Amino acid sequence: MTRLSFGNWDLPPVPPPNEYGNVLINRTSEKNGMKPVTFSHWIHRQKHTCRVCHFELEFNMKANTTEITEKTNRAGLHCGASGCHDGKVAFSHEKPNCDKCHDGGQNSSGVKFADTVSQLPNANYGNKIDWTEAMKQGWITPQNYLSLKPAEGLAFKENLTLEAEWSGVPPAIFPHNIHIEWLDCNNCHPAIFNIKKKTTKHFEMVRILDGEFCGVCHINVAFPIQRCKACHPTMKSETKY
Predict the structure, then answer these.
(1) Are 59 and 78 in contact (CB under 8 A)?
(2) Which of 89, 208, 11, 21 lies closest to 81, judged by CA?
(3) Which of the 8 DSSP states describes residue 241?
(4) In a structure prediction context, what are the per-residue pLDDT tens digits for the chain, which is 241 residues long?
(5) 48: which strand partners?
């Protein structure tokens, strides 16, 4: 992976499309004689929105900070929740299936990435899939809950204009309506952003690049931070990636 620079920023490298969004879960695996688990967002987001795991199943947004164990999975928590890897909907936590997840980062799930890409709207960033367009066109209809149904009528459409503090950098535009198709309000508020506008302290690009604020998602899972014009739409140019 090649690290890119744009203006004053040293941008993080972008993995290949089939690896973009993959998370290596290794909080306790190797300590217990198991290979780390590969979690591929591109596989799971075809079936479920982000809120299912990051709200209903209580996975923290930051990898390896949730105390997942084989015991909790077998008890019906985390990946082993009813409607997920319970042996009915998806493969269970039984011995011929161990290597499907505990592959040490080799992503040996057997799911063909090229087949997925060919069927969904293309993009020139991240997984090379335009996930928002895929949902809009009905190519994917990810489930928004397992058992805890969200409140009806969540349709907050306000766009926020966030003025940049750097000379020559145009404002960023944050659209709520796109984000709430995938997330609950409490995925971002108040742990990542304060609810009241302009009260989040240290909301700076250098910290976004370090995985804070927008960088929680837009470094490794949602479209990469290199896609500057997606957030700063009047910017004249952006990096090539």
Answers:
(1) yes
(2) 89
(3) -
(4) 545 555 566 788 889 999 999 999 999 999 999 999 999 999 999 999 999 999 999 999 999 999 999 899 999 999 999 999 999 999 998 888 998 899 988 865 556 888 888 899 999 999 999 999 999 999 999 999 998 777 665 667 789 999 988 888 899 999 999 999 999 899 999 999 999 988 999 999 889 999 999 999 999 899 998 898 999 999 886 654 4
(5) 143
